[in-house]
Amino acid sequence: MDRRKDEISPTSGLQIPLINPHNHKTNHFPFLCSLIASMASILVGYDIGVMSGAAIFIKEDFKISDVQVEVLVGIINLYSILAAAAAGRTSDRIGRRYTIVLAAGFFFVGAILMGFAPNYAFLMFGRFFAGAGIGYAPLAASVYTAEISSASSRGSLFTLQEVLINLGILLGYVSNYAFSKLPVHLGWRFMLGIGLVPSVFLAALVILVMPESPRWLIMQGRVGEAKQVLIKTSDSIEESLHRLVDIKNAVGIPPTCENDIGHVPKLSIHGSGIWKELFLHPTPAVRHIIITVVGLHFFLEATGTDAVLLYSPRIFEKAGITSPDEKLLATVGVGLTKTVFVLIATVLFDRIGRRPLVLASIGGQAISLMVLGTGLTIMEKSEERMRWAVGMCVATVLSDVAFYSIGMGPMGFVSSEYFPLKLRAQGMSVGVMVNRLVGAIVTMTFLSLYSAITIGGAFFLYAAVALLALVFFYVVLPETYGMNLESVEGVFGNLNWKSS
After folding, report:
1. Which tens digits make up the pLDDT trace of 171-186?
2. Are 328 and 177 in contact (CB under 8 A)?
3. Which positions ≥6 away from 54 have C-beta within 8 Å?
4. Membrane-spanning regions, if any (predicted)?
């Protein structure tokens, strides 16, 4: 039986299917809203992609060392941890919508400061604002997407963020190539400063087009407004009423409460109570969710994906590609590969499901990283350039990012569906903080790591982490695709979930 078509809400008891009959017209407005929210990810991806090439020119212009380059590239992750720690509470206080606008503002200020930076210290100051945007944007966008979409399309809409991150990375690589012909002191400034344009565009679209999340509105007691948003974002009136009843039950509003026009008491979503429910006195389901989300975000970064993206020109140089233009073009190939495979994931997440894609993704990464480590080791020990080894290294870099993009990458955003409504924003902030902390460690140590254990050894280490991740996901990750958002929590905390 197809659970997506026949599942009935356990809370409402209403016999309304989660997916509309074929004679109902599909509502594309939730796609538009999720697309706009996910546009913040273009800015996140652009910063990742553009810095891989800009760092080469910044090093030449400011005469800085490799260690300073590592700090410049990786410090943004530490900055984003501070922002992520505040982003969950901010999202609960001012709403998902205005948190995305705030993130766009941080990117705008960061782009201006970095573009006009007169020295290394001022550039680091600009990186702080860009880091704040990276801490705020993915969390707010993923929570908003979870709360605006229906069960039938939620997985595909989550992948929009990864699609647009990859588009941003690709645009960053293209920007590197386009502005590399300018004088050194101007090229990298254009690369970093041009990011202010999409930040203004994003803020305008969010304010003019996007409604607030209906689930956040209900937590604020604004049931009437939430009902109107649900009508706009559902395929039918029946589905909107079904979703409204489920959300009201999730926040403890009696189903018989007819106060849909005015306000009902506001749900407390601030303070230490949330953290107690997450860490001090979690239910078995919440404990399972926290373990899954923290582990997921740890392994997303610990397998070295950010190192591949940010240092791809150096990796290709070690692989035997010495021409600057060829290195930048190969890096553009990385961006294209990521974009193509995350588009494939967009189709598969609501057809195959989350669990098979994640297991295939991390398994493929483990194999790719082992072969890449072998190829780089051969190149290091060889005194001549072997074309087959160069080809193997390039191919395995591309296969690593392809496998990452088809499963692991989108799952960072999908994980926001795991948390119950009251814990969602601040629970996701924990995941983002872990993600950014591990990302900072990886990006700020990669050059030193491969100097200590060789570049091939570094990728053997990442391959070992990927194998550990494969075991972790096989043991703890349940399947949640096609489920009503308010029903997802019930899959966790059950020792027999794999057989259910």
Report:
1. 888 898 889 889 988 9
2. yes
3. 176, 187, 188, 191, 192
4. 31-57, 69-88, 100-122, 158-178, 190-210, 328-349, 355-376, 388-407, 427-447, 459-477
Q: Say if residue 320 is in the same domain as residue 441.
A: yes
User: In 95-236, which ranges are continuous DSSP H helix?
Assistant: 96-115, 120-148, 154-179, 184-193, 196-209, 214-219, 223-233
- In this predicted structure, what is the pLDDT of residue 270? 53
* Structural domain total, the chain: 2
Residue pLDDT, tens place only, 290-346: 999 999 999 999 999 888 877 777 788 877 777 777 777 787 788 788 888 988 888
Check whether residue 312 and residue 251 sit in a common domain.
Answer: no
Same domain, 228 and 357: no
Domain endpoint, select from 266, 297, 326? 266
Cβ–Cβ under 8 Å, residues 114 and 43 = no
Distance CA 121, CA 191 (A): 18
Q: Are residues 164 and 235 in the same domain?
A: no
Half-sphere exposure of 57 (CA within 13 A, CB side): 24
Query: What are 470's two structure tokens?
Result: 């494969």
User: Bigger pLDDT: 493 or 142?
Assistant: 142
**Which has more confidence, 5 or 90?**
90
Within a domain: 228:
yes
| Residue among 346, 348, 377 at smallest CA distance from 459 | 377
Give the predicted TM-score (pTM) of the model.
0.75
Instruction: Spell out a b/e string for 16-48, using b for 16 or more CB atoms within 10 Å of the CB, else e.
Output: bbbbbeeeeeebeebbebbbbbbbbbbbbbbbb
Task: Take residue 419 and report the two structure tokens written for it.
Answer: 């948390």
**Could you tell me which of 492, 340, 361, 355 has the C-alpha nearest to residue 427?**
492
Please check whether residues 105 and 235 belong to one and the same domain.
Answer: no
State whether residue 221 is helix, strand or coil.
Answer: coil
Residues of the domain holding 255: 221-266
**Do the domain assignments include residue 107?**
yes
- Two tokens at 95? 């709403």
Residue 394, C-beta contacts closer than 8 angstroms, at least 6 positions apart: 316, 319, 321, 330, 333
Same domain for 227 and 157: no
Count of beta carbons in the 10 Å neighbourhood of residue 68: 16
| Dist CA 428 CA 139 (whole Å) | 7
Quick one: 316 and 302 in the same domain?
A: yes
Asked if 169 and 255 sit in the same domain, the reply is no
Q: Which tokens sit at 463?
A: 């391959």
The pLDDT value recorded for residue 10 is 38
Q: In the chain, what are the helix, strand and coil shares in percent, each to the nearest 5?
A: 75, 0, 25
